[in-house]
Amino acid sequence: QKEVEQNSGPLSVPEGAIASLNCTYSDRVSQSFFWYRQYSGKSPELIMSIYSNGDKEDGRFTAQLNKASQYVSLLIRDSQPSDSATYLCALWGPGSARQLTFGSGTQLTVLP
Amino acid sequence: DVKVTQSSRYLVKRTGEKVFLECVQDMDHENMFWYRQDPGLGLRLIYFSYDVKMKEKGDIPEGYSVSREKKERFSLILESASTNQTSMYLCASGQGVRTEAFFGQGTRLTVV
What we know:
The complex is a heterodimer of chains A (112) and B (112).
Chain A: E1 4-6, E2 11-14, E3 19-25, E4 33-38, E5 45-50, E6 54-58, E7 61-66, E8 71-76, E9 85-92, E10 100-102, E11 106-111
Chain B: E1 4-6, E2 10-13, E3 19-25, E4 31-38, E5 42-49, E6 56-57, E7 64-70, E8 73-78, E9 87-94, E10 102-103, E11 107-111
């Protein structure tokens, strides 16, 4: 089993809709979780970090973490065509390893 | 703003050449990482370092080595380039344990 699994997509949503991106992880001791956005041909950029169970909101983005169920999700409200990108889930670990481990990403397309 | 700079945006090398990819960060970060990104495979960690002269193998270290002589600079070395090392190479840096990382612009390496 991969350390970090993402719904592979691609995912298409109409403009103005909510896009929901999901990620599960295998290591119960993971403490730090991140969402990156990557536009085609560009490098990943951090959009959200979350460390505690529950929701964390930043503008149109909400990250949700459930450590008991070992999943982390990203909701994008009022999706815009400019949100079309690949979204990467990442976590620190596995275990005590000092590294950032990424999922394979979910490609999101927001249709005008 | 964090600035992570990779020495080349595009690089073309011949099979068997020794290749150096350089990465410099300006935020005095402890941690530096080298990833490669291939379609369908996501970001895979090659090597990382959490201190000067320290290095740790990631998931795919074979065929690569690294050097970190100064805190701000982390070099990836392909000892004898092969065509299966054609890829996008991404450098990242971060501070402390369990925190996010910031990426450079990437180097697209083609080995012919």
